[in-house]
Structures are given as C-alpha cells and as structure tokens.
C-alpha cells in the first residue's frame, strides 16, 4: 500500500558524500586583491546592460575574506564534501607563467580548512572565468588555450594535488558555448555558434590535456569533467517529436559525453553541422584520443528535463522555477543516471550540482521539496546499480547568479549582501537532518 511504501526509509550507502557546491566568481569577491588578474567575467560585468541591475562579482559573498566562518558553517551543517572552483586568474594573473603565491595560499588555506573539518574538497579548475589576458589572445577560440589550461592545472596539481581527492576539469562547457558564444548572455558575450563549437572542442581538448597532466604526477587524486546534462523526451507521441528529442539529446548530452567517455563525436550530431563548419577543421588527428582518455569520475549537473515537439520547439511539461529555463522533473535524474550507466558503463558518478532558486525568504519549503524529491530519485538510481558516490546541492549559499546578478537566490544559506551576514535557511536545517540520518 502507499502507506507501507512511505514507511520504507531512504537510506544511502555508508560513506555517501553529502555536499554543496559554489564557484569562485560567484562567491569570492576580492576581485582586485592580492594580485588577482581580471577574468572575462570582470570585463563582461563592466559592460552596460549585460547583468541585471548592473551587478558584478566584485564583492559577491566576500568569501575570500570570510572563508573560515563559511567553513565553520559547513561543518555545523555536517557537510562531508564541498565543491568549489579555483579562480585561474587569482592563481595565474595573466593565465600563464609563474603562479601568484598569494593566490595559491588562499586555496591552500581553503583546502586545509576543509580537511581540518573533515570535509572532502572537490575542486573545479574552470568555472567559466577565463583570464582576460588569455581572452585578449582569443581565449578558448585559440587552440593554445587548451595547453595554457593544462599548464595551470598542472601547477594546481603540484601545489595541492595530494590533498584534493577529486579534481574536476571544466564546469559545463556546454554553457560556455550556448551562453558565452551563441546567446551572448554570458562572457565573452559573442553570438556565433559556429565559433562556439570550435570553443567547445578546445575546451574538451583542455579537459583531456589536464587529465594527462594529472596522470604525469604521482598522486592518488581522481579526475573528471562536470557536465550539464538533461534527459530529452518527445513532448507527444509523434515521430517528429521523437526525432527531435534524439537531436536534442545529441546537443544536450551525447555531444559532451561521447567525446569524453567514448572518444568520438556522435555521428548524428556531426552530420548536423554544416559541411564547412569550422569545428570540423578544429578537430585534429589525435585530439579525440586525448579527450577520450580514461576518466576516474563523472560530475553531473542536473537541473531538469527537456521536452521537444515535432517542430523541434522546447516546451515545459513540468513546473518551472524563478529560473524560467528550469523544468523541474525529479524522475529525470533517475532516467539520466541509469542511462549514463547503460550507455557509458560503470564510471563512478558525483552529482556536482542540483538545486533551484527561491525568493529572499528564510522559509524555503519549495527547495526542501525539490531536494527531497531529487534525493529520492538519486537513491532509486543507486538501488538500480548506479555507482553514485556523492551529491552536491547548488548552492551552499546565495551568490552572484551570472546574468541574473543577485536577483536569484540558489543557496541553502541566506546571504544579506549589504551586511554579508549568513543565516541558514529552513532547507539548510532540513539538509543537516538528512546528513545526520544518512538519508530521508
Ligand atoms: C549552473 O548552470 C552553473 O554551473 C552555476 O554556476 C549556476 O549558478 C547554476 O547552474 C544556476 O543557474 O537564461 O535561457 O539563457 C546551469 C545551466 C546554463 C542553465 C545557462 C541555464 C541559461 C538559460 N544553465 N542557462 S537562458
């Protein structure tokens, strides 16, 4: 009966990782301190009309100065894993060459602070903040950027490789292509999809070279990408909708998963690129062997599903959130995780992002429902055999939500951006209970 089903406890495997995620530009602030160089996001935020209310990440949640108190809060919530990103231009102010000791020192203190509190650091090397000095040389449009990225990655492995159990290379290369180079709503604000696909390839190459760089060290850390994935379904029973759902699956998922995990671009995706598309000549002999070399773990950012009609239009068949692109569908997470295992094998998976925005309120019942439903779906996937080892909700605290500025609050910890006061929301108390019970 339904009553009996409800009584079955949702208990996660022993040592399941309970985490939360952030990214450098969204929380750190201190944009011009201790030798940090500008990134494309500093530049983008200064261009009029780019960001809602003209907001910037100059101060953000001031985490650079308040990290110790933030780590205490993480410990109080019982987190066992914390995903953050490194600001490339804080560590290498012009993106290349000698490291900035003060930049490295900040991340050393952060990692040591986490380890001292029993929290595993999960470190993303690139969460969209390309050093401006490299963008001046074309950034990821320039094939050399893949090498520059691997050099920076290598410097990070040398500095703290042993202490970091999981390195994530890129966060959501798809979003760089879609928003940075197609819609133009993210840095560097270009509208040229063909060029974006070249950028996408160079990002993947950077991923592969960074994996290679880690293999050249002797450490025991694991590495993989963090991909934004969304299962795609036909919106109705027509053949056209089915066909377009497959095309959308190529764009949303296989276009990123196949190169990294199978060492090839999907044939149907490639066939849809123009015969003279620049991405074709951007792919050089040997690239896919580099891109497709073994990964240790796959990071999955999951926000919702995608439904496609017979004309290829996207429609919402489930409720959305304040983020109008988000189709909230917890079962999609189950479908996605089980599909990854079926099509790509038993690679360990960590959910690197999952969450929704709410209003300014401290009471956020919608977020609690969202998290409970998605954790239940994740648990079902584990029961079905998916090697899911940890979960990082997005986000630990309210932060700079890119083009939306400070108008979308994704945190379980509230931040008052005028006083920088932190206060756990109802969802944080709820999550603390989940962690304490190792389940729901
Ligand atoms: C993640 O992106 C990011 O990794 C994280 O930094 C971010 O804060 C979080 O999600 C919440 O947004 O406005 O129609 O142009 C999630 C993937 C990519 C989905 C950008 C929405 C913009 C759609 N997102 N995309 S639109």
UniProtKB/TrEMBL annotation:
According to UniProt, the reaction catalysed is: Hydrolysis of terminal, non-reducing beta-D-glucosyl residues with release of beta-D-glucose
The organism's place on the tree of life at top rank: Bacteria
EC id? 3.2.1.21
Keyword Hydrolase among UniProt keywords: yes
Which NCBIfam families did the record assign? BGL
This protein is called what? Beta-glucosidase
Q: Which UniProt keywords apply?
A: Carbohydrate metabolism, Cellulose degradation, Glycosidase, Hydrolase, Polysaccharide degradation, Signal
UniProt feature coiled coil, ranges: none
Which Pfam family, any one of them, does this sequence belong to?
Glyco_hydro_1
Its family remark reads: Belongs to the glycosyl hydrolase 1 family.
The organism named in the record is: Dactylosporangium salmoneum
């Amino acid at each position: 009966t339904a009553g009996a089903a409800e009584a079955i406890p949702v208990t996660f495997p022993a040592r399941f990782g309970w985490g939360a995620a952030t990214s450098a530009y969204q929380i750190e602030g201190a944009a011009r301190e201790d030798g940090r160089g500008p990134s494309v996001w500093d530049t983008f935020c200064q261009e009029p009309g780019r960001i809602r209310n003209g907001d910037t990440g100059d101060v953000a949640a001031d985490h650079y100065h308040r990290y110790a108190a933030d780590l205490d809060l993480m410990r109080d919530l019982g987190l066992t894993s914390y995903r953050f990103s490194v600001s490339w231009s804080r560590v290498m102010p012009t993106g290349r060459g000698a490291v900035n000791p003060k930049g490295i020192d900040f991340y050393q203190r952060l990692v040591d602070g986490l380890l001292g509190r029993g929290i595993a650091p999960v470190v993303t090397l690139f969460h969209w903040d390309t050093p401006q000095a490299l963008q001046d040389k074309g950034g990821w449009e320039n094939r050399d950027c893949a090498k520059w990225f691997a050099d920076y990655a290598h410097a990070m492995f040398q500095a703290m490789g042993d202490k970091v159990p999981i390195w994530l290379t890129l966060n959501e290369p798809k979003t760089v292509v879609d928003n940075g180079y197609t819609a133009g709503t993210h840095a560097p604000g270009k509208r040229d999809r063909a060029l974006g696909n070249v950028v996408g390839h160079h990002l993947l190459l950077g991923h592969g070279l960074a994996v290679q760089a880690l293999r050249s060290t002797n450490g025991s850390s694991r590495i993989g990408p963090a991909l934004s994935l969304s299962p795609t379904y036909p919106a109705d029973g027509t053949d056209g909708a089915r066909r377009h759902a497959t095309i959308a699956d190529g764009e949303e998922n296989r276009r990123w998963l196949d190169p990294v995990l199978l060492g090839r671009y999907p044939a149907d995706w490639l066939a849809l690129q123009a015969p003279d598309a620049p991405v074709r000549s951007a792919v050089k002999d040997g690239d896919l062997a580099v891109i497709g070399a073994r990964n240790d773990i796959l990071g999955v950012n999951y926000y919702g599903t995608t439904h496609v009609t017979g004309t290829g239009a996207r429609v919402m068949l489930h409720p959305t959130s304040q983020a109008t692109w988000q189709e909230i569908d917890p079962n999609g997470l189950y479908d996605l995780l089980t599909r990854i295992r079926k099509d790509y094998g038993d690679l360990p998976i960590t959910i690197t992002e999952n969450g929704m925005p709410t209003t300014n309120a401290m009471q956020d019942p919608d977020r609690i429902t969202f998290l409970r439903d998605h954790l239940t779906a994740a648990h079902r996937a584990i029961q079905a055999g998916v090697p899911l080892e940890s979960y990082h909700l997005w986000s630990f605290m309210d932060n700079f939500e890119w083009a939306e500025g400070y108008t979308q609050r994704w945190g379980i910890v509230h931040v008052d951006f005028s006083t920088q006061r932190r206060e756990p929301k109802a969802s944080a108390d709820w999550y603390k209970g989940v962690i304490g019970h190792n389940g729901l």
